[in-house]
Specification:
The structure holds two protein chains of two kinds.
Chain A lengths: L2 E3 L9 H5 L5 E4 L2 E4 L8 H5 L5 E3 L15 E5 L1 E2 L2 E2 L1 H17 L3 E7 L6 H6 L4 E6 L8 H15 L3 E5 L2 H14 L3 E2 L4 E4 L6 E7 L4 E7 L5 E5 L15 E4 L6 H4 L1 E8 L12 E5 L10 H10 L2 E4 L1 H5 L20 E5 L5 H7 L4 E6 L12 E4 L2 H16 L2
Helix pairs in contact in A: 5-6, 8-11
Chain B lengths: L1 E5 L2 E3 L5 E2 L6 E2 L5 E3 L1 H17 L2 E7 L5 H10 L3 E5 L9 H15 L4 E5 L10 H9 L3 E11 L3 E8 L2 E8 L2 E5 L11 H8 L5 E4 L18 E7 L8 E3 L3 H14 L4
Parallel strand pairs in B: 1-6, 1-8, 6-7, 7-13, 8-12, 9-12
Antiparallel strand pairs in B: 2-5, 3-4, 9-10, 10-11
The chains are: A alpha/beta, B alpha/beta.
């Protein structure tokens, strides 16, 4: 089982090198060569115009999934409060369902949670599968997995989406294994392939350095998780739908875990993940003193101040305000990067921001590649000027 | 107490770069490390073994050079290690990886606990732990940051939530995925590292036939999901540079925010 190149046919066009998801093709002396870590996935075969790439791998048959219908969202609740990621997923589910002309359904598991059904329908669900049982009161892996498994086997959905929360990341892989399907974690983009009608799942890999688009052709439902804040909820409507009750029988023996105590801790001051505006400082701020103008700007805009790893290492901000690969991932409406060059490790934590404003002395700084609005200049002038202009416009 | 630890060798992510011309990963010269969360899993297993007695077996699937990671695990104090290495395993998604690991754990047998890191820094999926647990029909606790008590039939741990934590009692055998908060991993000892490289090395290598699986059920062939495209992130930004003196720019910016209904 292998993929090889007929050297005489190869014209060295590099299409195969570009398309290889595993970086297993290279050009040597003007000809393509297959490297050792080739997985025989066949992506190169399709793009080779010279038909120089050959394989003895037989194409895998794609099963017929015509009976699989519906886009499902796991409606996550704790203490009868819905997680807003579920509403965001319902918005996405509506869009996907529209493209393949199917319904949107939500799965609601818990105890005395039926009151949430109206909200779920108002945000886009046509149906709610409701499973209530005292053993579902708190989230427990096996209890929830068993019920989702029953529902999936009974109603055979096409797509199943969950939030990449602590619960979703515990439940989704367990469900995927149980019902025998593939799963793609932390998708940032979900679309329907217009030709195949399948779900294309795009997610960052290697800390956001690479994006990968993943297909799940061989199993149903097509399962994916999405981090909170990535998708947008639809405006609340007077949604109408039906509630389908699912009878649950669960014993403690089925579950294997017991929650002895649940402790809610008050957040330790700042919550960058909820901030609508973040004013972030980098090396260019220059000193603790230099942070002051950032705090003034954040105050006027009702936002929070954050920083890069360097700022935290210098001690100019506490560690819980660090944004980036080793800090937090944030998705505010506005992210104002002040004196931040925009190293990949930092970008990984803020690329999901709706609008990015960058202020930096160096016009070639990579931060400008990801900015909506860029200002080349001294932040110590630009930030106070912007703060003043904002105050004036608000009449403060 | 027989403990199995699942680890992964990963590229040091901060070094990963894309070839700007081809858009593919540059793998040459990238240093490989034991996945950070997995080091905490190793530490938890080794310290538990020291307290309770028993044995720690480390399991990893990967190319032959993964042996370096396993040697390091032996150096830290694991008793034995198994490398699952076979070209048939290449290109596996988490479905086929969890199957391969699950099959191997069944072959090892006789375990009380399985430790994994929460997630690997190259994939960030956090899926392997729960999928292996389901394959083996054992309960799981994820995001473990404290091991409170271990008893004959169960273990009591603390599990991190977004806004607090839970104390969970979990029946044994069980699978736990751990986060960095749990402990400080020890350094490997040189003497043990040398032992790992000797003739009677405690590291075994298993291939597909050793664990009784067929090529069609593992690797890319045994996967449900496939990467169909990789690309450098595209930035759909307006990228508009504002010009003029500080005051003029500030005014323009305020207008921009108003236009977009941001203020």
């Amino acid at each position: 089982m292998a993929v090889w190149v007929e050297i005489d046919l190869c014209n060295g066009c590099k299409r195969c090198v570009k398309v290889c998801p595993y970086g297993a093709m290279e050009i040597r002396d003007g000809k393509a060569h297959v490297l050792e870590h080739c997985t025989s996935c066949g992506a190169c075969l399709e793009v080779c115009k010279e038909k120089a790439i050959q394989t003895d791998v037989e194409p895998r048959a794609i099963p017929d999934f015509n009976d699989r219908k519906g886009v499902w969202v796991f409606a996550e609740q704790r203490g009868a409060t819905l997680n807003k990621v579920s509403l965001e997923l319902l918005g996405k589910a509506r869009e996907l369902a529209g493209e393949i002309d199917q319904d949107v359904s939500a799965l609601l598991l818990g105890y005395q949670v039926s009151g949430l059904c109206d909200t779920i329908m108002a945000y886009g669900a046509d149906k709610v599968y409701l499973a209530e049982h005292k053993n579902l009161k708190e989230y427990r892996t096996n209890a929830y997995t068993n019920v989702v498994e029953e529902l999936v086997n009974k109603y055979k959905p096409n797509i199943l989406l969950m939030g990449a929360t602590h619960i979703g990341r515990d439940l989704a892989p367990r469900v995927s294994r149980r019902v025998g399907v593939g799963l793609t974690a932390d998708c940032t983009e979900l679309t329907i392939d217009p030709e195949e009608g399948i779900l294309l799942q795009t997610r960052p890999a290697f800390g956001g350095n690479v994006m990968a688009t993943i297909a799940n052709r061989y199993s149903r439902p097509q399962m994916a998780t999405v981090r909170p804040g990535v998708m947008e909820a639809l405006p609340k409507s007077r949604g109408k739908g039906s509630v389908i009750k699912h009878k649950v029988s669960l014993t403690e023996k089925d579950i294997g875990t017991k929650i002895l105590e649940a402790v809610r801790e008050k957040s330790k001051g700042v919550s960058l993940s909820d901030a609508k505006v973040i004013v972030a400082g980098g090396r260019g701020v220059g000193s603790q003193e230099g942070m002051k103008s950032l705090f003034s700007l954040a105050k006027v805009m009702g936002g929070e101040v954050a920083g890069t790893r360097i700022i935290v290492e210098e001690g100019w901000l506490p560690a819980d305000r660090q944004v980036g690969q080793t800090g937090q991932t944030v998705r505010p409406e506005i992210y104002i990067a002040c004196g931040i060059s925009g190293a990949i490790q930092h970008r990984a934590g803020m690329l999901g921001s709706r609008y990015i404003i960058a202020i930096n002395k160096d016009g070639r700084a990579p931060i400008f590649q990801v900015a909506d609005w860029g200002i080349v200049g001294d932040l110590h002038e630009a930030v106070p000027a912007f703060t003043k202009a904002l105050k004036d416009s608000m009449g403060k | 107490m027989n403990i199995i630890v699942l680890i992964k060798q990963v590229p040091d992510t901060t070094d990963v770069k894309l070839d700007p011309k081809t858009g593919s990963l540059i793998r040459e010269g990238v240093e490989s490390i034991i996945n950070p969360d997995d080091r905490h899993a190793l530490e938890a297993a080794i310290s538990l073994k020291k307290a309770e007695g028993g044995k720690v077996t480390v399991l990893s699937m990967g190319p032959p050079q993964t042996i370096d990671a396993l040697s390091e695990a032996i150096g830290m104090g694991a008793n034995e290690a198994i490398l699952l290495s076979d070209s048939a395993f290449a290109g596996a998604d988490t479905w086929s990886t969890s199957f391969t690991l699950g099959k191997s754990i069944e072959k090892i047998g006789g375990y009380d606990l399985i430790f994994c890191g929460r997630q690997a820094i190259d994939g960030d999926t956090a899926q392997i732990g729960p999928q292996v647990a389901d394959y083996l029909h054992v309960p799981q606790v994820t995001y473990v940051f404290e091991i409170e008590k271990i008893q004959k039939k169960n273990i009591i741990v603390k599990k991190r939530l977004e806004d607090g934590y839970e104390r969970v009692q979990c029946n044994l055998p069980a699978l736990l995925t751990v986060i960095g908060e749990l402990n400080v991993p020890r350094y490997p000892m040189v003497g043990r590292l040398i032992d790992a490289c000797k003739e009677k090395s405690p590291i075994k290598i298993w291939n597909a036939s050793d664990i009784g699986v067929q090529a069609k059920d593992v690797g890319l062939e045994g996967s449900f999901t496939q990467v169909i495209k990789t690309f450098a992130p595209k930035f759909k930004r307006q990228g508009e540079m504002l010009e003029g003196d500080a005051k003029k720019i500030a005014g323009t910016l305020v207008e921009k925010l108003k236009e977009n209904k941001l203020i």
